[in-house]
Specification:
278 residues; alpha/beta; seven-stranded parallel beta sheet; two-stranded antiparallel ribbon; 9 helices; 15 strands
């Protein structure tokens, strides 16, 4: 678009984001750790974080240090958890922006816990997702790390939270077994994404991590659909009458079955509307 609302635009309802957040919190019965990675799924991380302050979240989850730094620059003071595993060469930037790292192997965790002054961190446990995290049955590798009792948080990722195939129950059992072998239960245990948070309170623990539901998506099994958050709008640039049998647009793929009124909108595939939708 060349100017606001001149041709086509996206409208975002921040009020709907808040409604969706409150719905998750009511069902889960615990605090939220909203995921605002990828610019809050394209909705706008700063705007979303600011409006979600009214629901008193535990903190916010991001994927990168840069995303966390953006929230800090906007004045967000709550904990910001960088969910992608941290490494020692990033420690200075974590501390610069007061971000909480997540770790998935012994060496980086040990190096962080050895720093002074002490800073919080979270430990990811792989219970079946297979992307990141200390394997649940290899948790003893971090059990003896000096300072392991100071790990603030612990979490896992469910790979099929929307499916009733027993996998979420198996993953939860693995997770609890691993947490039980740590020197101390971390203060903030969190396992539930949107799908699990809206499935059963037994997955709530100390916080839940809603993502897609906040922005209007509804995972399978959710008790209620999320409120629509994003709308695409376009100006009607032309209205005309076509006769029965007349074709419209490229390749004449649509023909009027009867005399019809056709409106042309100021939006197309250059704006991201796929040609396959015609």
């Amino acid at each position: 678009m060349s100017a606001p609302k001149s041709r086509a635009w996206v409208e975002v309802s921040l009020a709907a984001v808040v409604e969706n957040a409150r719905a998750v919190a009511r069902f889960a019965g615990t605090r939220l750790l909203p995921i605002v990675k990828a610019n809050a799924y394209g909705v706008g991380a700063i705007a979303v974080a600011r409006v979600l302050e009214q629901v008193d979240p535990w903190g916010y989850g991001v994927a990168t240090i840069e995303e966390g730094a953006e929230l800090r620059a906007a004045g967000i003071a709550r904990p910001v958890l960088v969910c992608v595993p941290g490494r020692p060469d990033q420690f200075e930037r974590y501390r610069q922006f007061d971000l909480t790292p997540a770790f998935d192997e012994r060496e980086s965790l040990a190096a962080w816990l050895a720093l002074r002054p002490e800073r919080p961190c979270h430990l990811e446990i792989d219970t079946g997702m297979g992307r990141c995290g200390v394997r649940w049955d290899g948790i003893d590798q971090v059990r003896g790390v000096p300072g392991a009792e100071r790990i603030e948080g612990c979490f896992t990722q469910f790979h099929s939270s929307e499916r009733a195939d027993g996998s979420i129950e198996r993953q939860l059992e693995r997770f609890l077994t691993a947490v039980g072998r740590l020197p101390r239960r971390p203060k903030v245990v969190h396992v539930a994404n949107s799908g699990a948070a809206l499935r059963d309170r037994k997955y709530a623990f100390d916080a839940v991590r809603p993502g897609v539901y906040l922005y209007g998506g509804t995972p399978g099994g959710a008790i209620e659909p999320g409120k629509p958050v994003v709308g695409i709008r376009a100006v009607v640039v032309s209205v005309r009458r076509v006769r029965a049998g007349d074709s419209v647009s490229y390749n004449a793929t649509w023909q009027a079955p009867r005399d019809t009124v056709v409106a042309t909108l100021g939006i197309g595939y250059a704006d991201g509307v796929r040609q396959s939708l015609q």
